[in-house]
Amino acid sequence: MKMQLTLGKKIAAVIGLMLFLMLIVGSSGYLGLSSVSKVMCFYQEMIGVQEITFSVKAATDQYFLSVYSGDKEVQNSSVEKAFGLLDSGANKVAELLGTSMIEEKEKKGIQELNAPLKDYRAALNQYVGIEQEKGRLATLILKKFDDSNVQIQKGIMWTEPLVVNSRIAISHFNSYVFQASKVNWKTYETGLYDYKSVLDEWCAKIELSDSIRPVGEQLHVLYDSLEKVSIDYHSRNLLQEELKMKMNDHKDQINKIIGELAGLSNQKLEDQIRTSTLLIFGCILAALMIGIIAAILTIKSTVNKIRIVIDGVTQGSEQVSEGAKQVSNASQVLAEGASKQASSIEETSASLEELSSMTQLNAANASQAKTMMADVQDIVKKVDGHMMDMTRAIGDVNKSSEETGKIIKTIDEIAFQTNLLALNAAVEAARAGEAGAGFAVVADEVRNLAMRSAEAARDTAGLIENTILTAKKGNDITILTQDAFKENMDISGKVAELVTEIASASSDQAEGIEQLNMAVQEMDKVVQQNAATSEESAGTAKQMNSQTFRMKAHIGNLIAIVGRSGKKKKGIVREIRPDYGDDGTQVDFQTNHQRLAGLLKNDRKSRTLKSSPGKVLPKKFIALDDDF
């Protein structure tokens, strides 16, 4: 036996299906956006670590510049800032390792950041310590030069070459201190050897003087000490160069790891966005297809059965009306009943039109939902644009760093020229004595070069500030990306509202069907009145035998649709069929018709006892079966 569902249960099933599909669509959208949000958080953390790396490089460069300028306060603040940033980077790496939003491959890459961060800090710390030792050694070297000059003054005679070569060596040393290059070290080393040669010649000249010979011996002792300290100073410069190369290698290693992690997270973000988009669109399309199919099946089942009943009743009414022209006044009453049936059918048609308009409204809402999901795709494209802007911003940071290197090179060249001019000034002063007129010109050039050095330093500070602003720009672009995802979530909420409207429209359809049932009830009353009237016109109805049985069969189908209790529902249709005797002849129609009238009368009494007086509730009786 095929299961029968009442119209109310069918509508409730459709609404429940819509709500379930809405829940699936909302859940898929929420899960997709949650996954994308996690990947975005990890990407932002990687950008934060990279910004710390850029800031450490900027602080280290500022420290190197302050070493050249001799600004101790800037040196200390730059070193403290660099160490603080390195500690912040290590803490951020530890926080990332403690979170659950990263996978094993990403965790392995983050763990690789610990080693270069620690090595960079150790190299920078060692560099600062060596710089302090260099300051002490430079002071010691200059003191030994001063002690040598004091001893030279005690030599009394032939000391002018010693004074000149001593000043030249001091000038070369200052150049080497200002710019620790191989050329400057070679120049300073040559100056020391020249000073040693002049000292040996001078000692040979005063070898026979007992009063001056001790001065030469003391100068030799000072030279040996000066040479040893100079070599120590040079070895520390070489060690600092190695440390600089190590720090650059560590920085490149950090940037490489961060770049790989950023690329990995970017690929993961693209994959997650693609998966989420396909999942959301798939769920929406499936929900639309299932909802449309369910609505079509329900409406088709309802309309087909009602159309069959209406067509059958209409045809029977026309045939009865045609035969009623030959009957008496009772037949006129039967015609009036047929007119009432036509009016009820009209109401049924109006209800069906309203049901059709509601179905069109559901289709329009579904189309709007599809348009809004297209907006979601545009927002995802907007997010991709913001990510490209972020990449360009990071490129600007790299360009600023390159410009910083060029300006530092300019400062080095200016410093080298300053040292040459200082050497010329020393030579000029040695030749002219106190009346060194050319010294003023050289000194003026030195001052001009110093001003150029200051201007280059200011340009360097401006570029460093641009680097910071560029990093901030990258952060702002990340915020815009988050806003775009928030807008995506708002549109998903609107999609849910549209699905709710679809469910509301389905509820309105249920009310329209209920009105249709009331019209069918009126038709049932009219049919019963026609059956009672037919008792008075039994004698004239024999010629309408076949037409009457067809009409009663359709009325039986209508009673079955109303949902009358099981046995009576089937019995009415079975007992209205014509009876035949043992000899095969048809039993008198009058007798059979009286049996039909009795059944209808008993049916009215039963319905009066089971429901409220004078009214039959359609929702208790309408049951639509599936025809396909």
Specify the CATH homologous superfamily of the domain at 295-426 and 452-561. Methyl-accepting chemotaxis protein
CATH architecture of the domain at 295-426 and 452-561: Orthogonal Bundle
- Note the main sheet: 2 strands, antiparallel
Q: From the helix content, strand content and strand pairing, which structural class follows? A: mainly alpha
The global form is rod-shaped
Order of secondary-structure elements: EHHHHHHHHHHHHE
Supply the CATH class of the domain at 295-426 and 452-561: Mainly Alpha
Number of strands: 2
Rg over C-alpha atoms, rounded to the nearest angstrom: 52 Å
> Helical element count?
12
* Low-confidence spans: 564-582, 587-593, 604-628
Please list the strands of the largest sheet in the order they lie side by side. 1-2
Overall pLDDT metric = 71
Strand content: under 5%
Oligomeric composition of the shown chains? single chain
The name CATH uses for the topology of the domain at 295-426 and 452-561 is Helix Hairpins
Helix content: over 70%
Distance between the ends = 15 Å
Describe this structure in words.
Residues 240-267 form a coiled coil. InterPro entries: Chemotax_Me-accpt_rcpt (IPR004090), HlyB_4HB_MCP (IPR024478), MCP_chemotaxis (IPR051310), MCPsignal_dom (IPR004089). It holds the Pfam family MCPsignal. This is Methyl-accepting chemotaxis protein. Belongs to the methyl-accepting chemotaxis (MCP) protein family. The chain is mostly helical and 628 residues long. Among the domains are: 134-242, Four Helix Bundle (Hemerythrin (Met), subunit A) (Up-down Bundle); 295-426 and 452-561, Orthogonal Bundle (Helix Hairpins), CATH 1.10.287. The protein is 87% helix and 1% strand. It is built from 12 helices and 2 strands, in the order βααααααααααααβ. The chain has helices at 7-69, 72-98, 104-111, 114-153, 160-178, 182-205, 213-324, 329-432, 437-534, 545-562, 566-575, 589-610, and strands spanning 5-6, 623-624. It has a two-stranded antiparallel sheet. Helix 9 packs across helix 10 (545-562). The longest helix has 112 residues, at 213-324. The protein is rod-shaped and about 175 Å long. The two termini are 15 Å apart. Mean pLDDT is 71; it is low at 564-582, 587-593 and 604-628.
